[in-house]
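#onboarding

Welcome to the new folks! Below is a worked example of what a typical request in this channel looks like: someone posts a single protein sequence, and someone else replies with the predicted structure as tokens. Don't worry about understanding the tokens yet, we'll cover that in week two.

Example request:
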Amino acid sequence: HGDNVTEVFESVNPDAAYKTLSVDSGEWAAQLVNHVNNLKESGEERGIVNLSFDLTQVDAEGRTTTRYELTETEQLALKYARDNNVLLVVASGNTGGEMSALGQAAENFDNIITVGAVNKLEEAADYSSRGETLTLVAPGGEYENDPDAFVGTSRATSYVTGAASLVWAANPELNYQEVKEILTSTARDLGPEGWDADTGAGLLDVTEAVMMAGLVMPQDLTDVDSIDIEAFAGAGRVTAEVRAASPETERAIAQLTDTQNRLNDQWQVLKDLGNPDLTLEELQAEIAKRKSAALDSYQEADVAAAKSLVETQELSSALTLAMGHHQIELGRLQALSGRQQQLKDGLAALTGQRDELVAANGEQLRALEEAIARTEKELADARAKLQYQLVDPDTLVADIDAVKAEIAELEGKITDYRQKSAAWKAQADDYYAQAVPYREQEEYHKNIAKNAWTTRRVYKPWGRWQWRRVRNAPQYNRHTNLANQAASNANNLSWQGDVFQLNHSTLEQLVAQMEEQAKILRDYEKLLENNNQQLSQLTGLPDDAQRISTALQEQAVQKTKQAEEYWQQAELAEQRRQHNHDKADWHNSMYGDIRHHFTEQDAPR
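Example response:
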């Protein structure tokens, strides 16, 4: 295989100086690093490496399958080559389906050219692997009844490697990005218009590429993204290896070669012995017949091997997909569990707030009802006294000390409620302040998701490249989810702030009513002091009846005002109590729904 690769390479650039390295052991990454080190030690500032193989893995039972992940060592080797201006030309593979991890690495490493193969009709060869990272194609050869023919993406890769060496020789100051750009921009478009997964940018055109190389003004390397080295999922379970062709194909070729050798030996024996029953022409015809039958057998084995590889690849892809879905579902379950705990903690806090509010409102309502009852009794007494013109002066003297005690109690409650209102206001402001960073995070991630676009170069038939703008789906989805999460956190905090703000506003209204009531009580206290002073001077004669009636009427008016204030406070307290009861009922209902939801989520599947 290595001799065939170098033969094709020399047919494109016979004057090139090169080295061949064996990677039969699978340690190609170490060989690549050593080669880059040798380039640096010799003072070379550029290099080209041909990797005409794809990646495989061998499990514990000895089964060999295509490998779709790079090991950490392989990733570091590719990055080391890129950092030292080394261009890598790799084969897409001969499985006819999805290419191995080496061909797919062009997505992250821009110093990789992934090469597919076309047949003599300039159509994508059946055996040529395809994918989103295919760069371009080159001739892959045909068997044409020759089982020893060198056919495959390895042959196509050798052509591209030779062309790249000619481009760099024509303009040595180019960097690897410019060499790759020249090869793709001069390739002849095949199949659908522009780039496609079967033929990439098109068919290699060596002449056009070399001519363009002399016209390009060398530029500095374009900045490249940093590479995150990912762990190899198969570590400890499989052995990472490489292959030039499928094992099934190699065995079929070996069998065909053995058959041909046996036929030649038989023919030589018959010739030496001079078999009288067969002429030389008849013997040659028999040999040709057997060779044709053996070739047919080889082709059948090759097709069977290709089918087996496709089935193995499909099973591997299905397993990879299933593992991916498992990880997604596991992550979703963990997120739901975390959300469940958040909701439980929030519900516990709200339940405590609800109990506190219900207890406070109940106590306040009982106090107001007692005050209303006392006021109604005093009002009834005052109205009853107006029915008589002659009243015992001693019964008209009200207990001013009791009124003063009631004023002091009311002012104490006002002070207590003001402190509680201020605490609720501070707690509401704290929740609002906590929501602000989440709102900022929401806007930040929304802006990133809104601008999550990337560009892709598309080749047009009139010979120019155009850039197509497409959405960067992974980045868009990630930042949209982060924005939604931040919005949810901000809404939860704002909602809790609204609860405390509403309680603060309601308590402020109640304090205002109580202050008005205290003012009326203080006026009533002055009135009683004045009335008591006047009534103490009466003798009970009929001439004093008018003065008594007037005093009682003023007292009744003041009692009526007190009663109205008490009723307003009672109505406000009842509204606040009903609001908190409704809110408590809603919380209980929500907790029931949440508990039912998470009970279903936790149920075994």
